[in-house]
Amino acid sequence: MSAYRFFKKLSEVPYVxxxxxxxxxxxxxxxxxxxxxxxxxxxxxxxxxxxxTYWTKDGSLIIADTPGSNxxxxxxxxxxxxxxxxxxxxxxxxxxxxxxxxxxxNVVEGVRKYAERLVDLEEDIVxxxxxxxxxxxxxxxxxxxxxxxxxxxxxxxxxxSGEDTSYSKLLGDIHSICKDPPYKMxxxxxxxxxxxxxxxxxxxxxxxxxxxxxxxxxxxxxxxxIKKAFSGxxxxxxxxxxxxxxxxxxLVAQKKMTEENNFTFYGESAAxxxxxxxxxxxxxxxxxxxIRVETAGVQSEHGVEQARRCPHCNExxxxxxxxxxxxxxxxxxxxxxxIDVRDPSFGVLGTYxxxxxxxxxxxxxxxxxxxxxxxxxxxxxxxKSFGCGKSINWKxxxxxELPSDLKEAxxxxxxxxxxxxxxxxxxxxxNREVDGMLKQKGxxxxxxxxxxxxxxxxxGYLPWV
Length: 465
Known about the structure:
- The protein has 465 residues and is of the alpha/beta class.
- The protein is built from twelve helices and 15 strands.
- The protein has an eight-stranded mixed sheet, with helices on both faces.
- α5 links the parallel β5 and β6 (158-160).
- The chain is globular.
């Protein structure tokens, strides 16, 4: 096959990545779909040591068989292989492979472990294949309610497979849940630790994590009590200031854990140290998320939901304050309204000092800061005129689609919080090493053709891009 046809073929067929623990049956599925044999032989260790991609027998699908991410040996290396699989091509479906068990809740827990890691991805990119269905008495119909009620993670597509499931049935089921267009993923050191757990369960380090998380929760609980004494503008200012302060407290906790445990992020223990910092940070981010949701609630109340166009001069306006009735084109907000629609607060923000010690959280108002736009004077008056000045009615004006960057501003997340910031001593070296390993492994990844009638197979190679 020419290089052109090879790349064209790769871009046309769905690409599916199989994830799952050791022994769940990933390699068994690949054998059935591709004709390759001897991949699922019994072993006390993970059989699949590196990611391998294969064409199905009819050339209609590419499948990535990844190492079990719970492999006892080479945990970092195995998870890097999975990351490479997700980076390799645009993904039509990530399929979590779980083995049927007498207890349905054990199977659900196997799905949960992977689904929760991938919760930040496109909502319906994750599906499930339950293998070894011939070994249990419960049915797929009995299993589906458990997924919906217990997980609540939006996973709707589940495939059931047993020893007697035919190649055509399995292939058809996978094709039926592939997404078009596929999902483009990029995993690097920035998000690697969000998706993969690489730390051990050393008691000392787990306790260190628990202490940090407990303190963070108490900070939030203390704030919830103190804020009851605030209202109106002061409460809004306080919420934004507290959100910023808690952002910084995550970095404080990361540095403290690094220093207390003498982490260097170098040598054989580097991956484990990075994993423990990430494990703690992920838990702190979950608490920070709740704080940001509350802050976003204030933003929603005082923010921008619609844009409309003046019928006279075509100037586009956001309604910051006032009613939905008549006004004039260019009638700007008062100094007490929200000045910047991307940072929905007031023209003058109250500033606060937060202190945390053994007695709890204390908050003191220390002053104000002026964030009025350059187009306003100290009285909140506009130096420059805007709009045509003609009479308009807000409700009667035509709607304008909000720009994507403004829509995105309303989406709550904690993606900006780094799991292993370079500011931690030694962390930058480990981050560079992860990116280097991902790049090197990506260069060597190849796609095996399905076995032909003579039992021979060819290979196609993709360069790293």
